[in-house]
Amino acid sequence: MTDFAALLAPDRGQPARTIHVVTPAEWTNWLSAQPPRVRATVAAHKLTGKAGNKAILPGEGTEDWSALLVCDEAETSPWRIASQGEILPEGTYRLTHGEPGAAMLGWVLAQHRFTRYRKDEAAGPRVLLTGEPARIDEVVRVAGAVATVRDLVDTAAADLGPEELEGEVRRLAAAHGATVTVTRGGELESGYPMIHAVGQAAARGREPRLIELEWGSPAHPRVALVGKGVVFDSGGLDIKPSAGMRLMKKDMGGAAHALALAGLVMGARLPVRLHLLIPAVENTISGSAFRPGDVLRSRKGLTVENTNTDAEGRLILGDALTRAGEDTPQLILDFATLTGAARVALGPDLPPLFSDDEALAADLLAAGVAEHDPLWRLPLWSGYDEQLKSDIADLINAPEGGMAGAITAALFLRRFVPAGTAWGHLDVFAWRPAAKPARPKGGEAYALRAAWRVLKGRYGG
């Protein structure tokens, strides 16, 4: 993991190169105030003051230079100077005006690389100075959480099965003095039958399991974080086409989000009783795979007619949500790479939020705006509950036709959440299809920073 703490430092007047951050509206006045050598450099680069213009500007001496960035991002955006964190040479930098503030996050994340499978050829560290040193620790923690999600999602499924995901939880627990309980393999059959059914076809060593972490004083409000941990999704007997299977190493992205958020909670020592639940399975094909038409029993006692083995995430979450609700939590948040329908509706960058709790929904949406980590609320439209009806069981897992697929998946999950419990379901993509500054193509954390802001606001004191 990148040493993010080494990329930020208190500004005590030490030598540093400067970064001019200029908005398009400020461009003309800024340029007119510059010495001839700077104006000549700007002209040679044919810069016009358009957002994204950047250059290295000469100083009075040979080794005296500064950086220019024309930027139309708000000062509250974490990505405001992220491009500079990626491209500038090794060294120490400060802004010519104002504090980097939220932009410290983009600066450090721009220097993170996933290097498990290839050599890191990045430049040396670029250190950003700040007059707000009290913010550094929080930025470092959040950057670490985002990087955790990215790295876990980017890891190949051959190297991240249910056992390895359990190992990640155990490492996190050891770092914070938490306890871990794991129910695996045949032990699941009586207590967590849907988790067992989905994962029963996996090879030896990749058996399904429910991983639970608990931390904090039992006297504090109980908060449950649930993450879908399908380490690879072939679709099961309703097998996916090859194109649909290509990125299915990311189907444990919900688990990565929940694990990273749990790390933030424990790292900040929020006064909560934390319960992290990750149902970890591989949805694969063998003679023991669960079948279309099978009727599955659930931990809650509801029976589910399996109409599609590729709608497995909601099955394992159903058992995990039931377990989470048994201890009467004040709040449940679940993260899941659950439906393609959510991507069709909102694209990769905008996770849908489902919640019956108006206060929780309002808090999450507001936090998304404040953190530049947006969400969009979709309705838990009870009128579509009838699409979950079964002729032979209490409900089905996947209605025919695909209409309102993200909504019906959320409605399925709602059946397993205790009535009256504040619950939010986040259908995240966990993948960035195209790179942006500090946000490389690959695994990505969505709604993580928004959820963390809500938890801090509610329980941070």
UniProtKB/TrEMBL annotation:
<dbReference type="InterPro" id="IPR043472">
    <property type="entry name" value="Macro_dom-like"/>
</dbReference>
<keyword id="KW-0378">Hydrolase</keyword>
<dbReference type="GO" id="GO:0030145">
    <property type="term" value="F:manganese ion binding"/>
</dbReference>
<dbReference type="Pfam" id="PF00883">
    <property type="entry name" value="Peptidase_M17"/>
</dbReference>
<dbReference type="GO" id="GO:0006508">
    <property type="term" value="P:proteolysis"/>
</dbReference>
<comment type="similarity">
    <text>Belongs to the peptidase M17 family.</text>
</comment>
<dbReference type="GO" id="GO:0070006">
    <property type="term" value="F:metalloaminopeptidase activity"/>
</dbReference>
<dbReference type="InterPro" id="IPR000819">
    <property type="entry name" value="Peptidase_M17_C"/>
</dbReference>
<protein>
    <submittedName>
        <fullName>Leucyl aminopeptidase</fullName>
    </submittedName>
</protein>
<dbReference type="InterPro" id="IPR048816">
    <property type="entry name" value="Peptidase_M17_N_1"/>
</dbReference>
<feature type="domain" description="Cytosol aminopeptidase">
    <location>
        <begin position="308"/>
        <end position="315"/>
    </location>
</feature>
<keyword id="KW-0645">Protease</keyword>
<dbReference type="GO" id="GO:0005737">
    <property type="term" value="C:cytoplasm"/>
</dbReference>
<keyword id="KW-0031">Aminopeptidase</keyword>
<keyword id="KW-0464">Manganese</keyword>
<dbReference type="Pfam" id="PF21337">
    <property type="entry name" value="Peptidase_M17_N_1"/>
</dbReference>
<dbReference type="InterPro" id="IPR011356">
    <property type="entry name" value="Leucine_aapep/pepB"/>
</dbReference>
